[in-house]
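Request from the bench team (R.T.):
"We need a structural guess for the complex before ordering more flavin mononucleotide. Sequence and SMILES attached. Just send the tokens back."

Command: build protein-flavin mononucleotide structure.
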Amino acid sequence: MSMVDARELRNACGLFGTGVNIITTRRNGIDHGMTANAFMSVSLDPPLIAISIAEKAKMLPLIRETGRFAVSTLAHGMEKIAWHFAGKPDPGFQDVFRDERDLPVVEDALAIFVADVTDEILAGDHTIFIGHVRALNICPDREPLLFFKGKFGAIASQEPAPVDLCDPIREIIW
Ligand SMILES: Cc1cc2nc3c(=O)[nH]c(=O)nc-3n(C[C@H](O)[C@H](O)[C@H](O)COP(=O)(O)O)c2cc1C
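Reply to R.T.: structure attached below.
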């Protein structure tokens, strides 16, 4: 039997290319953001998403307390925002948040999900939160920021980006 060490597992998982999100919440008027790629769509009916948060992350107790979070999917060119909220704070960083349903979200993100926590699953050194999506905002013509093998990248564009039109925020009634 061969043992899989943590570094090997991390490297293997790093071969699964993903987008990049900033998870946010607000407690007592104070905003907190964290970079995350452990995000997935869980169910369309009801509309559920999942995120996975490390036990050492400051974000974990905050989401437990507030029971709410937002996911802002980053667009191409937002690497600085991703590093800033991944434990490498930039001292000259300008606030990038705007308000959505009383949660901070990243201005100009590709997609925004505002969710209420419905379930919390302890999974090893992480906690998975399932969120019921209450509001959505998408700018589908923007290009995504990607993460692969520990580096940020972009998709190879076939053609120039079309006119940048964003859909208005929508309530999810379910
Ligand atoms: C691309 C990328 C993706 C990440 N994804 C996650 C994730 O899904 N879950 C997680 O707990 N940490 C993730 N991290 C690490 C956190 O962003 C990092 O530990 C952060 O400093 C935690 O912030 P906090 O302690 O202020 O809440 C990721 C980091 C990067 C650069």
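Two things stood out. DSSP finds three helices and 13 strands in the chain. The chain has a mean pLDDT of 94.
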